[in-house]
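Minutes, project huddle
Topic: does the predicted pose make sense with adenosine monophosphate bound?
PN asked that the exact inputs be recorded in the minutes so nobody has to dig through chat later. Recorded below.
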Amino acid sequence: MTDKERIAQLTKELNEHNYRYYVLDEPVISDFEFDVLLKELQSLELKHPEFKDPNSPTSRVGGEITKNFNTVQHLHRMYSLNNCYSSDELMEWTDRLEKMVDGHIGFACELKYDGASINLTYRDGKLVSAVTRGDGFQGDDVTTNIKTIRSVPLILKGDYPELFEIRGEVVLPFEGFNKMNEERIAQGEEPYRNPRNTASGSLKLQDSGEVAKRPLECLFYHIVGAEIGLKTHFEMLQKARDWGFKVPPEPKISKNIKEVMSYISHWDKKRYDLPYETDGVVVKVNDLHQQQEMGYTAKAPRWAIAYKFQAEQGSTILRSVSYQVGRTGAVTPVANLDPVSLAGTVVKRASLHNADQIEKLDVRIGDTVYVEKGGEIIPKIVGVDLELRPKDSQRLEYITHCPECGTELIRKEGEAQHYCPNSLHCRPQIVGRIEHFISRKAMDIEGLGGETVALLVANGLASTYADLYDLKKEDVLPLERMAEKSADNLINGIEKSKGVPFERVLFALGIRYVGETVAKKLARHFKNIDSLMAATQEELEGVEEIGVKIAESVKEFFGNLENVDIIERLKDKGLNFSLSEEILSNRTDKLNGNIFVVSGVFESVSRDELKRLIEENGGKVGSSISSKTNYVVAGDKMGPSKRIKAESLGIPIIDEYSFISMIQ
Ligand code: AMP
Ligand code: ZN
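Predicted holo structure (tokens), as shared on screen:
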């Protein structure tokens, strides 16, 4: 088989596996096997960029940067939906419909997915553009970002028409949303408030590589502009499934309005069991011919209506407020309530967010409060019934000291949250720091999990992560549920972590705002911990993309002698505190014969380093883009004229990480 044929074959196979995994949820190969095939395709495409399909599964990893999204006209207008909130309004709607057409009207009911709407255009079975709704006539071209969503088919299957548009909703399922937030909290960042805003914000991110990391999904509900002899909306949904689109299984045909109502009341209760957010039911006339007869008003179809769910509210009494200290020291006030049943669950606690929120609501102990369970997973208090307020009630005083360790709380300017600054000796923070230290992207210590960490701390066996390296088997054996074998695993896992490279050790230290990427940048720049610790505020800010906030946080961390002491202990134990020279001095001939042009600002390497890496691995560095150029390695702030030139010549634009994976 020629390389060209193999590229075509792999493209087809990988697209099929993607479909099986992300749309059908029925994978037939392991993640590992998938990666092997993907790597093979990547390297073949590298060798023959001319054979790369623009809709290759390798484009799922993203990496392209968009500074300004182009405005694009929709082929067909994207309408809004009329809303209703009661069965009466629904009946009025059907009464109006009955006057418009002859014959029985049947309905198709589906959920109203709560995310960001998107319009995709396919030509000859390939995705050509993805555009946001915008004003309904035109929107922003976010194709590179949408391509990273695994459930969006890049190449279709079956009997698709030559050209059509399909509409769907980009959502962020709860599971992935929660995971993203856990990671943010571990890095000392504010969690995202709700899945919908995060999903719609994702579409406009400039770095498609960043979008690729978010577990977004796209759920489809409407095909436009295809004359394929379909009779009903329901058949249309099935067609979309046949072509490879993800259409949820919940849509249902309802013969009459009574069945519509029972669909609505079913999902009003059951919606909390769905993996993603919904805010209502969309009722559509099922017969496409009838739809056509009914037509559109100025802003919405007459043949469809959205029945909006009420955010479920209840009222109950606030008994007390407790304060939770998170692993980063952030304090969250929590309301303890008389149990109230909301959206099918019994609620006893609700979030009060922060001191400002308490002040704004002026909630007081003994108050009758309104509790709501909306998009956010934790219920919240939205108001107070002042008429029922007890006469002697007092304004709530926010705590001044940490409920865990007694340290005075601080609140930084411009921040809503109070913090306990005692990061080294406050119990949840001790546990949190160790958990972060051992996590997969940090030291990745196998055999040690969150529960064991809590036990180690509770039993006085560890109060910092440095203590882990003093642990002996006989120390941990007496712990609850610690068998011989798991004790061995734990000790081995800790020992093995000594081989983790410097940049990950730096990330593991848990310096506020120093996430994975920042840790890499700092490691690359300073090469070892001693020069990093000696760096002045100015030197830190001088590093590409390190701002005042990060620099201050790094200074503060190393300014604390206890941290310095912990690092000395870790050094003695043999952890890596300098950059391994391996990557930097590894010469290969992997890039032989390829000419690269480097443009923009990079995160993990400097431009000079990048050029050196190209040359040391057999490539050549070109000064300007021409038809001889094989690749453009693009960082942030790449000039638009360069981008246009590269695109017009069909030269692949890759980011630094794809480049580094080429030489590894
Ligand atoms: P609205 O934003 O309130 O005007 O409602 C219209 C929007 O609902 C559309 O633009 C879609 O993005 C969204 N939507 C979500 N689920 C559906 C669905 N099943 N059918 C039609 N529209 C939907
Ligand atoms: Zn504390």
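Observations noted during the meeting:
- The pocket of adenosine monophosphate (ligand 1) is lined by residues 80-81, 110, 112-113, 117, 133, 169, 221, 282, 306 (CB under 6 Å).
- The mean pLDDT is 90.
No decisions taken; revisit at the next huddle.
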